[in-house]
Amino acid sequence: MFCKKWAVWMITLAFLPPFAMADGPKDLEMDGVVVTATRTESDLLRLPASADRLEGDALKDRGAGDITDILSTLPGVDISGGTGHSRQPALRGLPESQTIIKIDGARENYVQKAGDAQTTILLDPDLLKAVEVVRGPASTLHGGGGIGGVIAFTTKDAADLLRPGQSFGASLRAGASTADSSRDGSLMAYGRSGDADLLAFSSYRDYGSYTSSDPDRAKTRLSGDRQQHLMKASWIPDEGRRVSFSASRYEQAYKYPDEGSWYESEQNRFLAALELDPGSQWVDTRMTLMHSERKEDQFNNVRNGLKFTSSGVDVQNAMRFAAGPTRHRVVVGGDFYKDEYAPQTDSWADPPGEGRDGGLFIQDEMALADGKILIISGLRYTWFDRSGKRSDAGDGSDSRLNPRVSLSWNPLESLGFYASYAEAFRPPLVSEMYTELDFMNPPVHIRVLANPDLKPETAKTREFGMHVSRNGLFSHRDALRFKAVWFIEDIEDLISIKTLKDLDPPHSFERIVQTVNIESAKRQGYELAATYGIGDFGMLFTYAKVDNRESSDKDSWAGATPGVFQSRIHYHFVETGLRLGWHGRFVESFKAEGKTWESHNIHGLFARWEGRSGSLDGLSAGIFVDNLLDESYRAYHFKDSGAGIGRNLRVSFGYRF
């Protein structure tokens, strides 16, 4: 009922006449262009999908010390608690394995479900130029794993930082946070010579004791650090050609003295990209090559070590043409990735194996009636195979077609509707198919069986949405944007661990478990977003919730989430360069798997300043407060990850020249 009232009210506003000479503010978060959803530039508000893009001031206002701090402010995104190395994002309530992560156009395929799961995203926030989040099925364009959606990061390069007429520049930043007793800093140097430019980046952050929002506010003793180093070069001989290369290294290490546990990892990642756009309607090509190596070593009662290697290529070409009364934008392409898992210890939780995934896709965006009607249709053929190197079980493989179609109708410049249908899937992981154990501790006998016959998880999603866009609603200086999305989803063959035989002393001392396809779920969800700005004042409101309509396993979470209302308010003092703001996150109570998550309200404040002229030009400072009232809460996530963060004060100072 709440969502229906909002939609009716916004449709009414769309028909009101605009204020004379309306131009509106120019920095609304829901304006702009998004690429990930269609692999081409599309208007964010009119896009027939649920998506967000953050860049510029919207990113800086978050004051993030960690990438997940940024993602947690977006609708439909839940982040697990704990420290940075274990924080994982979930889109629409689905695990990280059902979310595609991309950095500069290349997939990050590392996902670990056996043992202690670690985050896929190894990226310093200071490197981030923009982040796009597309909620909902994405397998048609991006391959397996996209049931929940896609999170795509774009990093900065020299061209983003050099001022007009500048051939060399540098920036440095230092900061500190109270909740995790951390100190951090980064240094960037960048320059251009002729047709080439270069960016060098280095960052470091150390951690101390961590204060959660537990009622007793007990500190978790922690010592650790993380660092990232990157070199990024580009060659741009003309407007139609661009070649770029980057190499980065990410290291992190954490120790928990009270628990006697520790975690260390390092990743080397290499990326090469070619872009061709000679001005022809038939050629707009992008190709990305990626190779990464990630090593982990951890101890939590048992020592585990893993080396994960991933190599891949992603290529696409966009064509634009007219056919009678219709205009077309067609994208064709393909991708291939090979992943290798090599355990560094004898742990059964990290079986050695290989995974190969590839696919071909085509998508047509057809515009009719002067652009008022847009039909997007796409199809992808995908195949995968998995093999276990120390398992007697055979190889596992499968292939399938994933279609997607959407219809958009924009009867007014200020009003539009869409409906879409898409299918997506998530292939099983090597660890899910080939984890094996035969353990005897008399009289108990425990066996974990491999399962090379695991089928991929599949989803069929129907989605409906509308948007309203108004400039000059009450003044020539104001603007309103609104978008509402409702989706219905059927997920089949959810992968889970099943106990085939349990301990029953004194009759049986044997337990047998295996990863199998046992669950199905029917879900529906709602996502609302509204932003209003007048002059230098702006407001943003979002709401997201996923309901479990039906599940074959009544005790399963089945991808449901609590309702989450978020709001942000800011004011920009343009002449002084000062931005002030407040943000809130209001979470409804929620029950799942026999547990209850209490409702909670989290408030935050920020003040950010950038010098604009004279001796102050290039200076910046920020103060960011999270969980202002020190609310005690547990953040809901697909895994129960404990209490959220306590009150946190973060300060940051920077200089750019």
UniProtKB/TrEMBL annotation:
GO cellular component: a single term: cell outer membrane
* Entry-linked Gene3D superfamilies: TonB-dependent receptor, beta-barrel domain, TonB-dependent receptor, plug domain
Q: How does it sit in the membrane?
A: Multi-pass membrane protein
The organism sits in which domain of life? Bacteria
Start and end residues of each TonB-dependent receptor-like beta-barrel domain: 228-628
- Keyword check for Signal, yes or no: yes
Keywords for the protein's UniProt record, in alphabetical order: Cell outer membrane, Membrane, Signal, TonB box, Transmembrane, Transmembrane beta strand, Transport
**What GO MF annotations does this protein's record show?**
heme transmembrane transporter activity; siderophore uptake transmembrane transporter activity
- CDD domains named among the record's database cross-references: ligand_gated_channel
InterPro entries named in the record: Beta-barrel_TonB (IPR000531), Beta-barrel_TonB_sf (IPR036942), Plug_dom (IPR012910), Plug_dom_sf (IPR037066), TonB-dep_rcpt-like (IPR039426), TonB_haem/Hb_rcpt (IPR011276)
| Matches recorded under Pfam families | Plug, TonB_dep_Rec_b-barrel
According to the entry, every stretch annotated as the TonB-dependent receptor plug domain falls at 45-150
Q: Where in the cell is it found?
A: Cell outer membrane
Q: For this entry, list what GO says about its biological process.
A: siderophore transmembrane transport
- Annotated signal sequence is 1-22
For this protein, the record's PANTHER family field holds: HEME_HEMOPEXIN UTILIZATION PROTEIN C (PTHR30069:SF41), TONB-DEPENDENT OUTER MEMBRANE RECEPTOR (PTHR30069)
Family designation = Belongs to the TonB-dependent receptor family.
Q: What is this protein's record name?
A: Methanobactin biosynthesis cassette protein MbnT
The source organism is Desulfobotulus alkaliphilus
